[in-house]
């Protein structure tokens, strides 16, 4: 009996120990579970707080989006009203310009943006000589953007028609560091020329900029040029500009040339040429529209008529080009001041088949000059002079000695005709002749 009682006590002790152990494990598990619940509750509270913050931010962004949508709609409505107003003004202006039955020679468009003072100076210069030619040359102002001073100035002249180009599309430059302004200028050019050729059905357009003055014979010059443009399809445009037209390099206001280099700065082109250029104009994202026209793939061997003495003067020291080369090349330009009757003159020598021989005779009549110290040697020679250059670096070296433009574009020096650059030195003609220029001119044994 005593043994059974001792065994029972052992069993009870073991059971007590097992119970205590179980309770300890249970307490530990409950504590861990309580900690996890506490962490979960804390995490849930944090998530709830973050969710509420996110909902608040989304609500704020939604309000901003709604506000922007309202503002965009208002701007669109205002833009539509402005476009409608401009169209009405343009229609009225064009009707006023076309009261006569005469077919215009060309529309003249002044490309403007945000320089009201420059625009006024340009308009005054044009109107000074425009009265007698108004029916032949209707004048438009094409404004890029919404500068109120420019618009007010343009609309103050009843003799002129007004167009406005509103471009809200973002500009993506092709290369780092490029100015957005040049891309917007190119868009404006395409839009304005499309308007004048396709909406208003002009056969020719003269492009001016809002920082130019014109010569007394400007309109007569382009009227005579229009006849050349129609008859000779190897002429791409008529220009009023000579890149080497600085006072010290020109002499004869009656002298005209053909050139393989597009001069720009006051030029006329025909609708047939624009029909070709418009679909691809600036599609290559070329920074400068004028350099784009100088690419051989675009001018395709066609040439340009240019004067020795400029018929436009560019006074725009401040603008998109930031005054580049203004004091060296633009400010010294000589503007013709003679009223020349170009329509009474025989300009058939400028036709493609005749000009090659005409120009070759001028080159053959010049005295050849070799070696270095060219200016010193020229002073000891009478008459015109021709100097042969080997390549572009050699040309640039010679150009620097005289002070003319050194620049080439797509393999062509500025003003060149078949590689020959001609300018004046003390009233004499200097011909800088390329390595194969004589061959192109059909000159042998010289």
Descriptive notes:
The structure is a single chain. This protein is an alpha/beta fold and 446 residues long. It has two domains: 98-350, Spore Coat Polysaccharide Biosynthesis Protein SpsA, Chain A (Alpha-Beta Complex); 358-440, 2,3-Dihydroxybiphenyl 1,2-Dioxygenase, domain 1, CATH 3.10.180. The protein is 46% helix and 15% strand. The protein contains 13 helices and 16 strands. The protein has helices spanning 2-97, 116-130, 148-155, 180-199, 218-231, 271-277, 289-293, 296-299, 326-330, 352-364, 374-378, 392-402, 437-440, and strands at residues 107-112, 139-144, 161-165, 204-209, 212-214, 235-239, 256-259, 267-270, 303-307, 312-314, 367-369, 385-388, 408-409, 412-413, 421-425, 428-433. A hairpin with a 2-residue loop joins strand 13 (408-409) and strand 14 (412-413). Helix 2 packs parallel to helix 3 (148-155). The termini are far apart. The mean pLDDT is 88. InterPro entries: Glyco_trans_13, Glycosyltransferase_13, Nucleotide-diphossugar_trans. Pathway: Protein modification; protein glycosylation. Belongs to the glycosyltransferase 13 family. Residues 1-22 form the signal peptide.
Which properties best describe this structure?
446 residues; alpha/beta; Spore Coat Polysaccharide Biosynthesis Protein SpsA, Chain A; 2,3-Dihydroxybiphenyl 1,2-Dioxygenase, domain 1; 2 domains; eight-stranded mixed beta sheet; four-stranded mixed beta sheet; 13 helices; 15% strand; signal-anchor
Task: Report the biggest beta sheet as strand number plus sense, adding barrel if it closes.
Answer: 8 strands, mixed
Number of domains: 2
The largest beta-sheet arranges its strands as: 3-2-1-4-8-6-9-7
The assigned structural class equals alpha/beta
Could you list the spans in which at least 5 consecutive residues all have pLDDT below 50?
A: none
Q: Return the CATH architecture of the largest domain.
A: Alpha-Beta Complex
Report Rg. 38 Å
Element-level helix/strand string: HEHEHEHEEHEEEHHHEEHHEHEHEEEEH
Count of beta strands: 16
Give the amount of beta strand, in percent: 15-25%
Give me the CATH fold name of the largest domain.
Spore Coat Polysaccharide Biosynthesis Protein SpsA, Chain A
The CATH class name of the largest domain reads Alpha Beta
Helical residues, percent: 40-55%
Q: Number of DSSP helices? A: 13
Q: What's the overall geometry? A: elongated
Function: Initiates complex N-linked carbohydrate formation. Essential for the conversion of high-mannose to hybrid and complex N-glycans.
GO molecular function, one term: manganese ion binding
Subcellular location: Golgi apparatus membrane
EC number: 2.4.1.101
């Amino acid at each position: 009996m005593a043994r059974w009682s001792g065994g029972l006590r052992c069993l009870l002790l073991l059971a007590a120990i097992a119970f205590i152990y179980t309770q300890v494990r249970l307490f530990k598990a409950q504590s861990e579970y309580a900690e996890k619940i506490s962490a979960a509750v804390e995490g849930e509270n944090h998530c709830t707080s973050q969710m509420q913050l996110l909902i608040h931010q989304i609500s704020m962004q939604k309000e901003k989006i709604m506000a922007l949508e309202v503002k965009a709609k208002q701007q669109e409505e205002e833009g539509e009203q402005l476009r409608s107003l401009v169209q009405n003004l343009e229609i009225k202006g064009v009707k006023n310009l076309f009261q006569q039955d005469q077919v215009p020679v060309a529309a003249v468009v002044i490309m403007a943006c945000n320089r009201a003072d420059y625009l006024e100076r340009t308009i005054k210069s044009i109107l000074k000589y425009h009265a007698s030619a108004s029916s032949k040359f209707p004048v438009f102002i094409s404004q890029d953007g919404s500068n109120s001073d420019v618009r007010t100035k343009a609309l103050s002249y009843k003799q002129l028609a007004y167009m406005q180009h509103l471009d809200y599309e973002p500009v993506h430059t092709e290369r780092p560091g490029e100015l957005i302004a040049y891309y917007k200028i190119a868009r404006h050019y395409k839009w304005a020329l499309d308007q004048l050729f396709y909406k208003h059905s002009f056969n020719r357009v003269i492009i001016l900029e809002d920082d130019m003055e014109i010569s007394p014979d400007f309109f007569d010059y382009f009227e005579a040029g229009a006849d050349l443009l129609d008859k000779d399809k190897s002429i791409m445009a008529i220009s009023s500009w000579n890149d080497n037209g600085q006072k010290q390099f020109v002499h004869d206001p009656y002298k005209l040339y053909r050139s393989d280099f597009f001069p720009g700065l006051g030029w006329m082109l025909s609708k047939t040429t624009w029909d070709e250029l418009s679909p691809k104009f600036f599609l290559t994202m070329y920074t400068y529209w004028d350099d784009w026209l100088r690419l051989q793939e675009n001018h395709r061997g066609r040439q340009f008529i240019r004067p020795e003495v400029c018929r436009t003067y560019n006074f725009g020291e401040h603008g998109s080009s930031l005054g580049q080369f203004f004091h060296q090349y633009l400010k010294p330009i000589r503007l013709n001041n003679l009223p020349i009757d170009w329509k009474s003159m025989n300009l058939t020598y400028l036709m493609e088949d005749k000009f090659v021989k005409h120009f070759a005779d001028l080159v053959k009549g010049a005295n050849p000059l070799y070696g270095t110290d060219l200016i010193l040697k020229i002073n000891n020679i009478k008459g015109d002079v021709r100097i042969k250059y080997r390549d572009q670096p050699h040309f640039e070296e010679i150009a620097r000695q005289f002070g003319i433009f050194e620049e080439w574009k797509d393999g062509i020096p500025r003003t060149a005709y078949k590689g020959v650059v001609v300018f004046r030195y003390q009233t004499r003609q200097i011909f800088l002749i390329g390595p194969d220029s004589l061959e192109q001119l059909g000159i042998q044994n010289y």
